[in-house]
Description:
Elements lengths: L1 H7 L3 E5 L1 H5 L18 H4 L2 H6 L1 H16 L5 H12 L3 E5 L5 H5 L4 E3 L2 E8 L5 E3 L17 E5 L10 H10 L3 E5 L11 H7 L3 E6 L11 E4 L2 H9 L5
Helix pairs in contact: 6-10
Amino acid sequence: xxxxxxxxxxxxxxxxxxxxxxxxxxxxxxxxxxxxxxxxxxxxxxxxxxxxxxxxxxxxxxxxxxxxxxxxxxxxxxxxxxxxxxxxxxxxxxxxxxxxxxxxxxxxxxxxxxxxxxxxxxxxxxxxxxxxxxxxxxxxxxxxxxxxxxxxxxxxxxxxxxxxxxxxxxxxxxxxxxxxxxxxxxxxxxxxxxxxxxxxxxxxxxxxxxxxxxxxxxxxxxxxxxxxxxxxxxxxx
Length: 237
C-alpha cells in the first residue's frame, strides 16, 4: 500500500534522522553511545562550550569527523538517492550532519543542521567544505581567527532560509516520509503535522514506535535499510 502511495505521489518530502545513519555505524549518542570522554555531547555542541573550551570541542568534532570518514552509506541512503531519481518532485531533509546522504548520491538535499565537513570562521564570512585532518585549533586562512564546525549547535537558530524552504515544500507534498527519527526535536518533530494539515499521506519508517506513530497514516517498524529498498523497488521511472 505504501509503495502504491509513493508511486502515485507527485511531490514527496522525506525527513531523516539519526536512526538512518546508525545503520552505517554512526554513533547516535543515546544508550551505550551516550558519553564521550565523560562528557555529554549535548554539553559540547553549544556555543558557550566552544567559547570556554574550544580545544576540547574541536577534539570532539575531529573525533567525530574521523569516525564518520570510516562509515559508508547503507541501503537506506542508497534507496533515498534512487527515490530522488525516480520520483518527479522529491526533497530530502536531513537532521544528520555526517554527509552520508550526499555520498550516496542525493542532490535534492537539505542539511537542516549543517555538516561536519563544513568549517566556517567565527569572525569573517569564510566557509568551506574540508575533508582533511584538521589541527587542534584550526585558523581561518583569510583573517587568522578560529574556525568552528559548520553545524547548528544547541541554542542556535537554523541557517537562514532553511526552515522557510522546508515548510514551503512540506506544505506542497502529497507524501511525507519520516525515517529513522525519534521525533523529539523541534521543529522537525512537527513536520508531519504540517504535512497532514495540507493533505499529505504521512508514513513513518523507524526501528520502534515514536510519539508521532499514532498520528501517522502508515507506520513501518524495522531497519530503514531493509524497508526503503523494498519501497523503491518497482517505482515507476
